[in-house]
């Protein structure tokens, strides 16, 4: 169970994953040694799963994001595994979620432009065995973006 110090540490690291233990200790009101122990414990428990730089996709040349819902012709383990193995090899797919409801998967595709998205759609996604239907939605702008909070 997380206590208030753990939550404060996670909040700080969520805002700045490069924060030093000394800075963390100043922010949360504990000395560096217990903060370091708590961070290690949170990592070992799988609460902190890693550290990464957040990248601006547009600055990297990926100006278009498209959300794609996919329905498979069968929802059996082999069909799911086949689809997931194919998706794992597509660099254009930056997020893939197995869903409940009337669609099996929700993907977020990042490409340079709509022409590149079309090439991905026609040349790769529609060729994956077992795909029955695809529905694409193009977002106009991101209203909110965040990661899970520790409260």
CATH fold group of the largest domain: Alpha-Beta Plaits
Taken from the alpha-carbon principal axes, the silhouette is elongated
What number is the mean pLDDT? Answer: 95
Amino-to-carboxy terminus distance: 12 Å
Order of helices and strands: HHHEHEEHE
The number of strands is 4
- Tell me the CATH architecture of the largest domain: 2-Layer Sandwich
Helical region count? 5
> What is the CATH first-level class name of the largest domain?
Alpha Beta
Radius of gyration: 20 Å
Lay out the secondary structure.
Blueprint: H1 4-15, H2 21-28, H3 32-44, E1 64-72, H4 77-88, E2 93-98, E3 105-111, H5 114-123, E4 131-137
Antiparallel strand pairs: 1-3, 1-4, 2-3
Helix pairs in contact: 2-3
A few lines on this structure:
36% of the residues lie in helices and 19% in strands. By secondary structure, the protein is an alpha+beta fold. It is elongated.
Characteristics of this structure?
elongated, Alpha-Beta Plaits, Arc Repressor Mutant, subunit A, four-stranded antiparallel β-sheet, 5 helices, 151 residues, alpha+beta
């Amino acid at each position: 169970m997380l206590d208030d110090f753990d939550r404060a540490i996670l909040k700080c690291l969520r805002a700045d994953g490069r924060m030093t233990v000394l800075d963390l200790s100043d922010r949360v009101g504990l000395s560096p040694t217990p903060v370091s122990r708590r961070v290690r414990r949170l990592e070992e428990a799988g609460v902190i799963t890693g550290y990464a730089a957040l990248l601006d996709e547009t600055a990297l040349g990926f100006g278009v994001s498209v959300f794609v819902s996919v329905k498979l012709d069968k929802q059996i383990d082999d069909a799911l595994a086949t689809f997931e193995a194919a998706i794992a090899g597509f660099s254009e797919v930056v997020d893939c979620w197995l869903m409940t409801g009337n669609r099996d998967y929700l993907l977020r595709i990042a490409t340079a432009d709509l022409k590149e998205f079309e090439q991905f759609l026609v040349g790769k996604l529609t060729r994956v065995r077992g795909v029955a239907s695809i529905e694409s939605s193009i977002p106009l702008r991101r209203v909110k973006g965040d990661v899970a909070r520790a409260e």
